[in-house]
Write a structure and sequence with these properties.
The structure holds 2 protein chains of 2 kinds. Chain A is of the alpha/beta class. Chain A contains 9 helices and 10 strands. Chain A has helices at residues 27-37, 54-63, 79-93, 113-125, 138-147, 168-177, 192-200, 210-213, 218-238, and strands at residues 6-8, 11-13, 17-20, 41-48, 69-71, 97-100, 129-134, 151-154, 182-186, 205-208. In chain A, strand 6 (97-100), helix 4 and strand 7 form a beta-alpha-beta unit. Chain A is globular, with a radius of gyration of 21 Å. Chain B is globular, with a radius of gyration of 12 Å. Chain B has a single domain (2-60), classed as Ubiquitin-like (UB roll) (Roll), CATH 3.10.20.30. Chain B contains 1 helix and 5 strands, in the order E-E-H-E-E-E. Chain B is mainly β. The chains are: A alpha/beta, B mainly beta. Chains A and B meet through strand 4, helix 2 and helix 3 of A and strand 3 and strand 5 of B.
Chain lengths: 264, 66
């Protein structure tokens, strides 16, 4: 398997970039951004249909890419809303994958850990593959794992904030503590270097949307993220050197010219 | 019969099942999913779901999401 590929929930994905589809300047730019970056999966939502076929028009843009779809429960605040949304998504998109998003705070859009856990438990009972959007709390990770979540998606920073990795220590700790889970940094990414940093930590993938859709040139930015995620993964596999305090010459000192024994 | 569809009040002639409403409101053949009073209704159950006065329907379709 090339280092761009990843197997998640029994399915091989072509890339470790997971891309959102919201907020692009136009449907055509969304399509070009997908084409340019070839994400491993794309996220979508469900919203009220006005009987004019707007859902079908949107779906027509995505379906021919044959990229796995990850529907979300964005905007849900309760377990009941999230479960009903997940059931509707399973029927519409024909997948049991669900990005479980249960918001607990309007200002930060922080996921509610208690409702998240309760909802994940019920969805797993109903045969969903749950991709939980969560905080970077290790106890929450533990509880979700015990309930059967093999994928964990801690936030880098609040949704759409572009702040990057707010708490690298917590993210690193999750990676160390859950070596067998698929870990995806989801939300808050602003620059490709943020995504690369997550991948250098050993994260399995990065999910982002706004950093691409709101860039001046979303197509070019999608490519930049694809390259950064690839670079970060390669660096992780290659083994990054440990930082040290003292300088250490990289050019060999042996046989350097102009050296005399009495120079010491 | 008064129902709510996607947040809007509708006054329709009873009796009605869910499929009747979907047909009357122009949703047949569309890529949609339905919830009635907050509970998912599978496509196969539309014709067996008789509506009651005061029912709250949500009809959704694919949209952009992050």
């Amino acid at each position: 398997m090339m280092n761009t590929e990843i197997e998640i929930a029994g399915q091989k994905l072509a890339s470790r970039l997971f891309l959102g589809t919201a907020g692009y300047p136009s449907p055509d730019i969304l399509a070009q951004a997908i084409k340019a970056s070839n994400p491993g999966l794309i996220t979508v939502s469900l919203r009220r249909e006005n009987a004019a076929g707007k859902g079908q028009k949107f779906w027509d843009i995505l379906k021919d890419f044959n990229i796995p779809i990850l529907p979300n429960t964005a905007g849900c605040y309760s377990a009941k809303e999230a479960i009903t949304t997940a059931e509707m998504a399973r029927e519409v998109f024909g997948t049991n994958w669900i990005k479980l998003e249960v918001i607990g705070d309007d200002y930060t859009l922080q996921p509610n850990p208690f409702t998240l856990l309760e909802t994940a438990k019920e969805l797993i009972k109903r045969d969903f593959e749950v991709f939980p959007y969560m905080t970077d709390d290790a106890i929450l990770a533990d509880e979700l794992t015990k309930e059967g979540c093999s994928i964990l998606m801690p936030w880098g920073a609040p949704i759409g904030s572009g702040r990057g990795l707010n708490n690298p220590y917590a993210l690193k700790t999750l990676r160390e503590r859950y070596p067998n889970s698929k870990l995806v940094v989801d939300a808050g990414i602003g620059a490709p270097s943020h995504a690369a940093a997550a991948m250098e930590m050993g994260y399995d993938a990065v999910l982002l949307n706004t950093a691409v859709s709101k860039a001046s040139d979303p197509i070019l930015m999608a490519q930049a993220f694809s390259a950064a995620i690839h670079a970060g993964r390669s660096a992780y596999l290659a083994g990054i050197i440990k930082p040290q305090e003292q300088a250490s010459a990289s050019t060999p000192l042996i046989d350097r010219p102009f050296w005399h024994q009495n120079q010491g | 019969m008064k129902i709510t569809l996607n947040g809007k009040a509708l006054n329709l002639e009873a009796p009605l099942n869910l499929y009747d409403v979907i047909e009357q409101q122009g949703y047949v053949e569309m890529l949609i999913a339905v919830a009635r009073n907050g509970e998912f209704v599978p496509k196969t159950n539309y014709k067996d779901t008789d509506l009651q006065d005061g029912d709250d329907l949500e009809i959704v379709s694919p949209q952009q999401g992050g």
